[in-house]
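Annex B. Sample input.
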Amino acid sequence: MNKKLIALAVAAASISSVATAAEVYSDETSSLAVGGRFEARAVLQDGDVTDASRVRVNIAGKTDITDTVYALGFYEAEYTDKNDADKVNNRHINAGIGGDFGQVRYGKTDGSLGMLTDFTDIMSFHGNGAGGKIAAADRTSNNLAYVGSFDIAGDNLTVKANYVFDDGADDAGYSAGAIYALDMGLAFGAGYGEQDLDANTTAKQAFGSISYTFGDFYVAGLYQDARNATENSDKELVKESRGYEFAAAYTYGKTVFSGTYNYLEDTNASGSNADLVDAFAIDATHYFNKNFRSYASYQFNQISGADDQFVLGARYDF
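Annex B, continued. Sample output.
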């Protein structure tokens, strides 16, 4: 198992990546690829077993406009076995242009802060408890997004910026971020986002991330400082919140062992702090080949009254 698979998100230079997609059509200027996954997931919590299985299907198209400029489109849907209207979730619907300058897309696509939370969001199921993002910084519709990746003396600089338009139902917002990855294995990034919630309230969120890859080991940290960007257990808006995540992974042959700690607190809860997220998680994922993996993941929840959770999963990528 190549260690780069763990840190893939840190070096990613595109908004959406399709690692195992198969090319189903190509000519001198155009190509079309189809990919996705079948993922079976059994969630064990409080004595019950819940089926959280899902299927994702994506279609990626690209056509050359000139020798240096191309057009692209991407669609991805997720299907579950729920008995309601949420059976199909359109995760990505976007198109745009790209070139040496980067890529510009419009539609339903990623915001700019996900590449920072990906530093510590490395587990097959759990983790990312303190990495929640405001809508404008996450995957959302009505979104004009830019991403560019640039080589700087052997190192890599990735920048992202996006703007979400006001459509009358959802207010406008934006986010921007950057990652600088050194060839020696150290990477660090920062980003910021804002979005109006109503005439008097604005959600604000800042992230900082750092990671280091050495041999078969990977370690990373994430810090978040936010205003009006979180909800508590009663679904009430949290005026001020801060949190952090730590992640570590070790690759042994074709198996990756990982662990994370996630903590998020309400720093304005009636004059005293209140925990929103407090959890440890461990994970073991075995890659039989590039297409198939299985995993086991356990989360130890430190919040009073919250249950631990154990997940068994198998995933086939195509």
